[in-house]
Design goal:
Length: 455
């Protein structure tokens, strides 16, 4: 590694306390005690990980939802810094009991509780990814670890009775790099010793690792797997539903395939959709319809509404030079397409803390250094002309329609993820220490966890 840089394994700085004491109801200690392990199940996890799949029990479930009729206000938002000098935070997950969990791509899982944060575990199997120092002026597109490392995080729906936190990370094997999803027991004396592989052998590379995981409204674990093949050395494997490359997976909490998953001819039973390039955002419309964001080649970034079993075209169709168009194919086209968002984590915001953003898909923008508010509807007439962009080309998704508006340009830098807390507040993390930030980033206080507010 170049001198002057440092990684979490080389320097464990004490980052101090978070100013989170004002987050009502989401950081208090749970009164529930974690359940005692049951008899070890066949999959080796010593807890009953089974969950209900009744989507009607989801507290945001609404089959009669409608999209806002106007674009969100620009310049109407405040930024409250809750944590500074993090090392490329990648994901945020809120536990049902109130704790906040964060991942740093350099290899640390943090928990936030009672206004402070502490390390839960640093899985030794994670590749040694690197972060530039705060305030660095170095422009290094390829830092150690590339885009891999400790990425997504999700909390078991019955936490803390089932005290499992799931992570998606890149690791080295005898056959090279791979991505895997692992569940950690947060009550173990050493959580790294109390861990179980949920999904393994997801293709990995320096780029295109995907990495977002989350429990959806019906309590399935969803996994956004990148194609792991940025040079397209093996395009047939990406297009093959029998592999895990470039797929959206849906599994039970123990990693098994749900019986309700689509039956794709020749497909792995864990695959929900295929033909994806580098998906990094997972969210749901209020009626439970899944929606994702994914990076395109030379532009062609996409927002896709998912239909079970469908092929989304990669590596053949994309709205980019050198690739086939969607028109005239059986591939499922996107609902929104943009040349340079570099979309990452997203959330469909239903909270009341930031009214102008309610009912919209909020997407973290990396190279665009912004938050993108995407208004999605099944009634295109609701998309007013005051949005910056209307995504209404005749080759796009015919059932859903979208318009988009950029927010907070160059105020946070590279926005890696946007998340809604159980209190209806809106949170985001930045990725300014990954060597790719510009326009004054990283600052001496990067990276950050922030709360977005209305002015």
């Amino acid at each position: 590694m170049t001198s002057g840089r440092y990684t979490r394994r080389r320097l464990l700085t004490a980052a101090g306390a978070l100013s989170l004491s004002t987050v009502a109801g989401c950081l208090s200690e749970s009164d529930d005690e974690s359940a005692s392990p049951t008899e070890t199940s066949a999959d080796g996890i010593p807890y009953d990980t089974s969950v209900d799949h009744e989507i009607e029990q989801w507290d945001q479930y609404n089959t009669d939802w409608t999209a806002p009729e106007t674009a969100p206000q620009q310049g109407a938002y405040g930024i409250e810094v809750l944590a500074e000098n993090l090392e490329i935070p990648w994901d945020i997950a809120f536990a049902p009991s109130g704790e906040v969990f964060l991942t740093e791509r350099t290899g640390r899982i943090l928990t936030v509780e009672q206004g402070e944060y502490e390390t839960v575990t640093e899985p030794g199997a994670v590749i040694d990814a690197e972060a530039l120092p705060p305030g660095s002026e170095e422009d290094s597109w390829y830092v150690e670890g590339g885009e891999g490392g400790l990425l997504g995080i999700a909390v078991h729906p019955n936490y803390p009775d089932v005290p499992l936190v799931y992570t998606y990370f890149t690791t080295e094997t005898g056959d090279g790099r791979t991505n895997r999803v692992v569940a950690f027991d947060t009550t173990a004396d050493d959580p790294a010793d109390g861990s179980w592989v949920i999904v393994d052998d997801i293709p990995a590379d320096a780029y295109h690792n995907g990495g977002r995981i989350t429990f959806g409204p019906a309590n399935y674990l969803w996994i956004a797997a990148g194609d792991g093949d940025p040079e397209l050395d093996n395009p047939d494997a990406i297009a093959d539903p029998g592999t895990l490359a470039g797929k959206i997976l849906r599994v039970e909490p123990d990693g098994s395939a749900p019986a309700e998953n689509p039956d794709i001819e020749g497909g792995d039973p864990r695959v929900y959709t295929y033909g994806h390039r580098n998906p990094q955002g997972l969210a749901w419309l209020p009626d439970g319809t899944p929606i994702i964001t994914e990076h395109g080649p030379s532009g062609g970034d996409e927002v896709n509404v998912l239909r079970p079993g469908e092929n989304y075209g990669w590596p053949e169709a994309r709205n980019s030079d050198g690739f086939d168009s969607y028109a005239g194919t059986d591939y499922q086209p996107p609902v929104a397409n943009a040349p340079s968002w570099a979309p990452s984590g997203c959330v469909f915001y239903t909270g009341e803390a930031v009214p102008s953003l309610q009912g919209r898909l909020l997407v973290g923008g990396l190279i665009s250094q912004q938050v993108v508010a995407v208004t999605v509807t099944q009634d295109g007439s609701r998309l007013s002309a005051d949005h910056e962009s209307r995504h209404d080309a005749d080759w796009m998704d015919s059932e859903y329609h979208a318009a988009s508006t950029p927010l907070l340009p160059d105020e946070l830098g590279r926005v890696r993820h946007v998340e809604q807390g159980p209190d209806g507040e809106l949170y985001a993390v930045t990725s300014n220490r990954d060597g790719r930030a510009g326009d004054g980033f990283p600052t001496r206080h990067d990276d950050k966890l922030v709360r977005l507010t209305s002015n």
